[in-house]
Amino acid sequence: MKNRALNPAYAFALCYAAMVCLAIAVNLMPIFLTTLRVDLGGRDGLTGEQLGRISAFTFVGLVGGILLTGPLADRWGGKLFCILGTLLIGVGLALLGNAHGYSMVLVAVLVMGLGAGILDMVLSPIVAALQPLSRATALNWLHSFYGIGTVITVLVGTFAFRLGIGWRTISLIFIVAPLLVVLGFLNVDLPPLISDTEGRRTPMRDLCRNSSFVAVNVAIFLGGALELGLAQWLPAYAEMSLGFSKWTGNISLLA
């Protein structure tokens, strides 16, 4: 039987597509916020705190997915978590597409955030294992697809709004992407995240005692919170506080 892992191009393409799914999970809600404020908030609309809670639930899911995946991916392999993370994004989009209340929206973004966190943790070591002699190049290519996914998400979502398509339908349309990626991962073998030549895993206790490791994690946490916080609020701020149109507010997310 031919080993499918001998086709790294297919595995790379799936990882890039999964990064696009991650971008959908993170960047879809910002273009929905002002619409949700009216649709789910009744006559007075959702408060600023309620809108902020949506972003907070996304971030909680993201952090939870990262913390869950980190210690387990080395043991169980990256393929399982690629499937799980992408599937959770699809489930979150389905929940969002059928949400008729604020609480269901919170559940949906939490599930999507969890899936995004899992993918964010596992995709980088997979592409590094696929291209061990050019890891920096592989990682740069991978993360460039987050930007590509962001552009796709914002443009498709914004144009759909201009065509009169509702946010629930837009969410259901985007389900196609994670479903296709899940099917792809089911039919590919991925390399182990730790090769025999690199030795055994470093215990988590030893890593936590390494001051450089702790400092880098704190920096990534704060940088991620800053990036996600600004991205989640920018379209709504441009529309509600600066008086720009919904089109202009959404496109500002691409800046």
Describe the structure.
The structure is a single chain. This protein is mainly α and 255 residues long. The radius of gyration is 19 Å and the shape is globular. It has eleven helices and no strands. Helix 1 (8-27) crosses helix 6. It has helices spanning 8-27, 33-39, 48-76, 78-97, 102-130, 135-162, 167-174, 176-186, 204-208, 211-240, 246-251. The termini are far apart. It has one domain (4-191): MFS general substrate transporter like domains (Growth Hormone, Chain: A, Up-down Bundle), CATH 1.20.1250.
Could you list some keywords that capture this structure?
single chain; 255 residues; mainly alpha; 11 helices; 76% helix
How would you summarize what this structure contains?
This protein is mainly α. The chain has 11 helices and no strands. It has a single domain, classed as Up-down Bundle (Growth Hormone, Chain: A), CATH 1.20.1250.20.
- What is the name of the CATH superfamily? MFS general substrate transporter like domains
Number of individual domains: 1
Q: Work out the radius of gyration.
A: 19 Å
Strand content bin: under 5%
Please give the CATH architecture.
Up-down Bundle
Write the H/E string, N to C.
HHHHHHHHHHH
Q: So what's the CATH class?
A: Mainly Alpha
Mean pLDDT: 86
DSSP E strands, number: 0
Cα(first) to Cα(last) distance is 48 Å
How helix-rich are the residues, as a percent range?
over 70%
CATH topology: Growth Hormone, Chain: A
What is the molecular shape? Answer: globular
Number of helical elements: 11
The structural class is mainly alpha
Main sheet specs: none
